[in-house]
Amino acid sequence: MDVLLLSRIQFAFTVAFHYLYPPLSIGLGVCLVIMEGLWLKTGNPLYHQMARFWTKVFALTFAIGVATGIVMEFEFGTNWATYSRYVGDVFGSALAAEGIFAFFLESGFLAVLLFGWDKVSRKVHYFATWMVCLGAHFSAVWIVVANSWQQTPAGFRIEETPFGPRAVITDFWAMVFNPSSVDRLSHTLMGCWQAGAFLVISVSAFYLLRRRHEAFAKASMKVGLAVAVVASLMQLVTGHSNALGVIKNQPAKMAAFEGHYETGELPIYLFGWVDEKNERVRGVALPLPLSRLMLGGMTPVKGLREFPPEDRPRVNTNFQLYHLMVGIGFGLIALSLAAAFLCWRGRLFNQRWLLWVLVFSVLGPQIANQAGWFAAEMGRQPWIVYGLLRTSEGLSAVVKAEAVLTSLILFALIYVLLFAVFVYLLNDKIKHGPDDADLVPTGKLALPSRPKPDAAPPAQPV
Amino acid sequence: MSYPDWLDLNATWFVLVGVLFTGYALLDGFDLGVGALHLFTKKDEHRRIMLNAIGPVWDGNEVWLVTGGGALFAAFPVVYATVFSGFYLAFMLLLVALIFRAVAIEFRSKQPMRWWRQMWDVGFAGGSLLSSFLIGVAMGNIAWGVPIDERGDFAGTFVGLLHPYALLLGVTTVALFMMHGAIYVVMKTEGELHDMVRGWINHTIIFFIICYATTTMATLIYVPHMAEAVRNTPWLFAVAVANMLAIANIPREIHHGRDFRAFLSSCAAMVALMTLFGLEMFPNLVLSNPNPAHSLTIYNAASSPKTLSIMLTIALIGVPVVLAYTVSIYWIFRGKVKLDRMSY
């Protein structure tokens, strides 16, 4: 195998594995802020128990996210040295900003979130929970900005150096708010919220089916559903806006997503199969007027034939990944709305078939997130920086295929082990369930957050 | 924001990257040192106390490495690309070691089985030892110089990186972190474990001083360019003296039971060491050996002045905030470690 393919497999594998965890941390972070906020507001100890239990789950996902996240930062330099020299001026700044503004915040306050329960007051602890959640969101901001710059470069110029050409920032804010940043960031974050929310929903549904921890499960389910409904509906907006952005900025990518060869009106397929040899799609598409309406008059859309074969991404693979993501996205909207409606009518908790669907719903956002990112990255090919630098030109000149194969095998072994341990420990936590001891706050948390209304008024000096 | 002309942005970033890596050494240095000492304690309770001594902070400490790497990428992308691709296998091993260290801390106490705990104990200790060693080996190669071609690419081999001087620096780094970690444990514990680790401190200091003396001699004989700055500007010798005084002060403070001051002494010694390293390297970032003309310096390997100044603004906003809450978090978790039900 050649070093290009191996390096691409290694990066895809390590980043895909990593990306199982940060969405959970970001989504669970939002749920934790809500749960702890409800506890502070209502004083109901059930919410305290929820915050404690889900914090433990959060800690587990966070630890693996951190451990596997540093790998990508190294890989830019180890496997993609030419790329790193080319983009360092731009991409490096976003990465450094991520460290300064996001990782320190997240990891610092994580200590208080996990270990500070008895050491600080309620308000300080809640502040720490907010900061961890914000830090997780900030890290998504900077890394998605950096990635979006690779998709739609802006705010830079190319200059020659003794070590080859490189991109140099000319306008920092144009770089940060490049044409795809906001769309892709909002779409990514909502995907993360869905991942966290559906984990909460899934575990709660499992408890309800087993008739264990029912009060806890019902309350958790409501928080999970609230986040899931908001995030899933937002995906309609962000997904739509993203698709229009891709048509405008990366036409070859959208053409691959829909198997669109001939420039003209873009049919929107529900599902299908691209016959790449004969350049046609077999499948079911929306009626053209409807597609036209959805695209808001963005016609004609460039077809793949406008691009020389060496500038085209893979077509059928991207088509399938994209439609998988969209399909699951609509499924999650329907599911979260149906479950929320039944919950509101008070009928959700005895619909056993629906609870079973909800138990497995946790896989939905994970698969959609992975498929979406694979489509985003494979749809950008053959470019590593769209239109500027080819992936094949971004490799490290000095790294041999044997070295990459060695590290790839090493990562494969370790990640299989990590995944097994993660599933084992998560399963163990779920089986163990929330601690009844957590119904009673301890340490400084046991102090009331504000004086009781029936407490005697302070004595007035006479 | 624009900065005055007299400010050398490249030199400023040399210092800032140095500060980030020094911060990493001071903070994660004791985490790695605690890991290296982990298997020397036998009781499960002692091991848990040691883990929990670094429990709330190790993760934030590792961020100094992540941010240092990010800053190197942004400020000196050529160095980042050359070193990371050139040291490919060594850095992959470092990643593996850091992964094991991280997950072992999180996983170890989640199950009571003996085999489970032993497995993660080995992961924690092995990961910490290997990380410290590889960081030292990388420093050793940077000091010794590595073959670089005219395109700025590494022209050596993996085995070529494992020469005696680099290995010596690897061992010295392990010794330094062990000393630093032992002092940290003494500071954070009480009772039986405290007294036991207190007894180890002198051994770790002796181990470090032997390594350090050997490294100094080897540097003077084989790596004379790493002593040039001090030779040319004799008053810089004061930094080396400050380093020795700081190390000599550690046993004295420990003897008087002033654990925190011993820890500060150890930090001061590390700052002095990193300062010496920086002074001797300046303005080079990676020395090309045998062809010095191909060396990567803070000028030929840097990002554009505009990026350096944007990044400086980011650092000026971000670093004070980071320092403020880092200090508050250490303050919240001050005092001796006590195991409770949130503990690892």
Residues in β-strands, percent of chain A: 5-15%
Domains counted in the coordinates of chain A: how many? 2
Number of strands of chain B: 2
Unreliably modeled segments of chain A: 451-459
Radius of gyration of CA atoms of chain A, rounded to a whole number: 24 Å
Strand line-up of the largest beta sheet of chain A: 1-2
Distance between the termini of chain B: 45 Å
The number of helical segments of chain A is 14
Q: Largest inter-chain interface?
A: A-B, 73 and 71 residues
* Structural classification of chain B: mainly alpha
**Average pLDDT taken over every residue of chain B:** 90
Summarize this structure briefly:
The complex is a heterodimer of chains A (462) and B (344). With 462 residues, chain A is mainly alpha-helical.
Structure description:
The complex is a heterodimer of chains A (462) and B (344). Chain A folds into two domains: 1-180 and 394-432, no CATH class; 182-249 and 251-379. Chain A has 14 helices and six strands. Chain A has 462 residues and is mainly alpha-helical. The radius of gyration of chain A is 24 Å and the shape is globular. In chain A, the strands form three sheets. Chain A has a two-stranded antiparallel sheet with strand order 1-2. Residues 451-459 of chain A have low confidence and may be disordered. The termini of chain A are far apart. Chain B starts with 8 loop residues before the first helix and ends in a 12-residue tail after the last helix. Chain B is mainly alpha-helical and 344 residues long. In chain B, helix 1 (9-37) packs across helix 11. The mean pLDDT of chain B is 90. The radius of gyration of chain B is 20 Å and the shape is globular. Chain B has one domain. Chain B is built from twelve helices and two strands. The interface between A and B is large, with 73 and 71 residues.
